Amino acid sequence: xxxxxxxxxxxxxxxxxxxxxxxxxxxxxxxxxxxxxxxxxxxxxxxxxxxxxxxxxxxxxxxxxxxxxxxxxxxxxxxxxxxxxxxxxxxxxxxxxxxxxxxxxxxxxxxx
Length: 112
Hints:
- By secondary structure, the chain is mainly β.
- The protein contains no helices and eight strands.
- Strands 3-4-5-8-7-6 form a six-stranded antiparallel beta barrel. A two-stranded antiparallel sheet has the order 1-2.
- A hairpin with a 4-residue loop joins strand 3 and strand 4.
């Protein structure tokens, strides 16, 4: 199990991450996780933790398998505001533990 230490109301870091360690984020050792709401095409909503990667890739950690689905990703902010990140297509799903999945997606369209 990965230990998570709360950094602020909006982000979390994997324990043991050192910002001075070269390439730590690029290798996936640690990543900033942001709270998001994910809406599927059929209108269902799920809450997830979002991490961004290179080339418009997204990692959505949530309690649902979203493989093959087109989703709208909405960033939740601590002051109750919401920011639409964009529309993404989920290309892969990885089971992290019982009932927790990492869904890898690519941004199709950014909404501004």
